Amino acid sequence: MVSVFNEILFPPNQTLLRPSLHSPTSFFTSPTRKFPRSRPNPILRCSIAEESTASPPKTRDSAPVDCVVVGGGVSGLCIAQALATKHANANVVVTEARDRVGGNITTMERDGYLWEEGPNSFQPSDPMLTMVVDSGLKDELVLGDPDAPRFVLWNRKLRPVPGKLTDLPFFDLMSIGGKIRAGFGALGIRPPPPGHEESVEEFVRRNLGDEVFERLIEPFCSGVYAGDPSKLSMKAAFGKVWKLEKNGGSIIGGTFKAIQERNGASKPPRDPRLPKPKGQTVGSFRKGLTMLPDAISARLGNKVKLSWKLSSISKLDSGEYSLTYETPEGVVSLQCKTVVLTIPSYVASTLLRPLSAAAADALSKFYYPPVAAVSISYPKEAIRSECLIDGELKGFGQLHPRSQGVETLGEY
Ligand SMILES: Cc1cc2nc3c(=O)[nH]c(=O)nc-3n(C[C@H](O)[C@H](O)[C@H](O)COP(=O)(O)OP(=O)(O)OC[C@H]3O[C@@H](n4cnc5c(N)ncnc54)[C@H](O)[C@@H]3O)c2cc1C
């Protein structure tokens, strides 16, 4: 997850949440010395010190560091790449505790097989596509078939999820009563919002009814977030849908309003370098997701420090930060102006406690559900012919509602 600090702004009641691969790009700068956007490439004083673990780290002059990004997962690397692209002269360093970049991204290749043990795809939004193009991977991008159905297991049968509006009346995952309830709710004929921040379950049951929740949203939350929809915040997990009701009085009202606003607003031209995905789809790369962190890391070169584990952070009187690392060469101290933490929130909580107990308490409340990924290969002849579409195994995985009595969250 991306948690960035100088002054730490955590809402006290923040719930949630599984971090997302999609848009890791916000950061603050120090309130003591802010550089306005119009002033390019601020150069800041900093230093790197190296010393043995037996004695306190000593500072020696070195190249100045403007920003230290802690964590070499996809969030940290995308932030570093965005900074390096927009501020070519800024000195950005990425520090990663492990001896490889990528964090959760774990692509494996062996015996002719290529598989993912962590995330398997991303949504090809424009910010993600910008990262792909900037890292030189445009030609390696692979987009899924937008017509490949997704399936939900319901009453012992895999049922396709509607992919487009015209599928809505015909799909057999929901009853006619459930579809009518969802339609009325989407139009705004449903109980008004309560005064508190709703969970995904509360919001969906109230707006779209029990069937949409139990047969579509609950399996989606289990399969994608491995999370409990009664605890996930609607606003945080599905902010775009939450905003529709807030802005338009209902989901459909909000959709029309959003379309009107989009058509009325003058849009900046789309970056012509970006590929245009057809329909709703997902993306990866020819050699798996690991290509993205590997490519960004290769471009950043020696600005990426592997096996550097951050062990403490302190704030100096100058307003700068001093970071202390355990590295293969001993204890190293790095002084910098701005720090971006993209490490798991429980690690950030411990590191930030000396600076802000409130931030540490808030960060300690995020729940990280344990997930096991198992990869299995079958020969094509083992698939029953009635499971094939036009003789092919077509589809983008299956999701399993917890109510269906199977222990797996889904399959891809
Ligand atoms: C099984 C699984 C399947 C998933 N499937 C998908 C999917 O299909 N699509 C999708 O969009 N998302 C998916 N996700 C979520 C996605 O993987 C994460 O949102 C994303 O990888 C988070 O990236 P990150 O860089 O924020 O964090 P991480 O990947 O956790 O990276 C954090 C990095 O910080 C480093 N670090 C930790 N402590 C320190 C320290 N003290 N000093 C220095 N470095 C430190 C870690 O070693 C790590 O490399 C999945 C997640 C899992 C676990």
UniProtKB/TrEMBL annotation:
Q: In which pathway does it act?
A: Porphyrin-containing compound metabolism; protoporphyrin-IX biosynthesis; protoporphyrin-IX from protoporphyrinogen-IX: step 1/1
Protein localization: Plastid, Chloroplast
Task: Give the superkingdom in one word.
Answer: Eukaryota
Q: Its Gene Ontology molecular function terms?
A: oxygen-dependent protoporphyrinogen oxidase activity
Instruction: Give a yes or no for keyword Nucleotide-binding in this entry.
Output: no
Classification via Pfam families: Amino_oxidase
Q: Where is this region: Disordered?
A: 261-280
Subcellular location, principal: plastid
Q: Which cofactor does it need?
A: FAD
Q: Bound how, and how many: what does the cofactor note say?
A: Binds 1 FAD per subunit.
Gene Ontology, cellular component aspect: chloroplast thylakoid
Its EC number(s): 1.3.3.4
Q: Which GO terms describe its biological process?
A: protoporphyrinogen IX biosynthetic process
Q: Which InterPro entries match?
A: Amino_oxidase, FAD/NAD-bd_sf, Protoporphyrinogen_oxidase, Zeta_carotene_desat/Oxidored
Swiss-Prot/TrEMBL catalytic activity:
protoporphyrinogen IX + 3 O2 = protoporphyrin IX + 3 H2O2
Q: Which SUPFAM superfamilies match?
A: FAD/NAD(P)-binding domain
Keyword check for Cytoplasm, yes or no: no
| Gene3D superfamilies for this protein | FAD/NAD(P)-binding domain (3.50.50.60)
Q: Which segments constitute the Amine oxidase domain?
A: 74-410
Similarity annotation: Belongs to the protoporphyrinogen/coproporphyrinogen oxidase family. Protoporphyrinogen oxidase subfamily.
Protein name as catalogued = Protoporphyrinogen oxidase
